From TrEMBL:
Gene3D superfamilies: 3.30.70.260, 3.40.50.1360. It catalyses: aldehydo-D-ribose 5-phosphate = D-ribulose 5-phosphate. GO terms for molecular function: ribose-5-phosphate isomerase activity. The gene is RKI1. GO terms for biological process: D-ribose metabolic process; pentose-phosphate shunt, non-oxidative branch. Pathway: Carbohydrate degradation; pentose phosphate pathway; D-ribose 5-phosphate from D-ribulose 5-phosphate (non-oxidative stage): step 1/1. Keywords: Isomerase. It is an enzyme of class 5 (isomerase). It comes from the Eukaryota. One of its GO terms (cellular component) is cytoplasm. This is Ribose-5-phosphate isomerase. PANTHER family: RIBOSE-5-PHOSPHATE ISOMERASE. It comes from Modicella reniformis. Belongs to the ribose 5-phosphate isomerase family.
Length: 235
């Protein structure tokens, strides 16, 4: 499928999710990170040019904060707005129970906080992210944010847990480790097919030095997948 058709699939999913879940009464909207979320922001602006007067947006990364500010929208954080009406975000993979892998862009710590602060968490993605089990299509591994000085110790624990290929995420051209918006490092830990994501999440969170894990279990209420034929599959 061409990249323009994939972009169109992302756009369709994002537009429909905004139209069905962002209500005129909403005052605080959580905005995830990544390329699909750009369409979420575009739709919000397109639908209601007066949005800025009455709504605050809580971004989940430097990236989404920048796009919201460039669009002239009012930006806040969960410290000011701990009750978010709805959060819409992308995902790297979603299973049949709506568990998700997130953090391909390294923003899953803030994404999880803003999703948990919301009354409703909605996922938008293209059809490539729709799987029966996590690990089916997203084979790079579960993104794990770690405090920098602990990365080797955490990597060893992950290898002991069966993720032999757990790797520190490096910047382009191996210029050094990727550093998150929170000043931490990332390890991508493949676990093959993930049949019990909630148990894996619990086990990973017990490793000292782990800040947050890119497994979002039992959080999403609904997911929109833009399809190859221009339709949107809702789960
Ligand atoms: C960033 C994320 C993104 O939502 C995820 O990587 C999907 O991104 P895209 O919409 O570009 O495919 O979790 O941490």
């Amino acid at each position: 499928m061409s990249s323009s058709l994939i972009e169109q699939a992302k756009q369709k999913a994002a537009y429909q999710a905004v139209d069905e879940h962002v209500l005129p009464s909403h005052r605080v909207i959580g905005v995830g990170s990544g390329s699909t979320v750009v369409h979420v922001i575009n739709r919000l602006l397109q639908r209601d040019p007066e949005l800025n007067a009455k709504t605050v947006f809580v971004p989940t990364s430097f990236q989404s904060r920048g796009i919201l500010l460039d669009g002239g929208l009012k930006v806040g954080d969960v410290e000011q707005y701990p009750n978010v009406d709805v959060t819409i975000d992308g995902a790297d993979e979603v299973d049949s129970q709506l568990n998700a892998i997130k953090g391909g862009g390294g923003a899953h710590l803030q994404e999880k906080v803003v999703a948990e602060a919301a009354n409703k968490f909605v996922i938008v993605a293209d059809y490539r992210k729709d799987s029966k089990l996590l690990g089916e299509q997203w084979t790079k591994g579960v993104p794990i944010e770690v405090v920098p000085f602990a990365w080797r110790a955490v990597q060893k624990k992950l290898q002991d847990m069966g993720s032999k290929d757990a790797e520190l995420r490096m910047a382009v051209a191996k210029a050094g480790p990727v550093v998150t918006d929170n000043g931490n490092f990332l390890i991508d830990a493949p676990f093959g097919l993930i049949r019990e994501p909630a148990q894996l999440l619990k086990d990973l969170k017990l490793i000292t030095g782990v800040v947050e894990v890119g497994l979002f279990c039992n959080m999403a209420e609904i997911a929109y997948f833009g399809c190859e034929d221009g339709s949107v599959r809702i789960r």
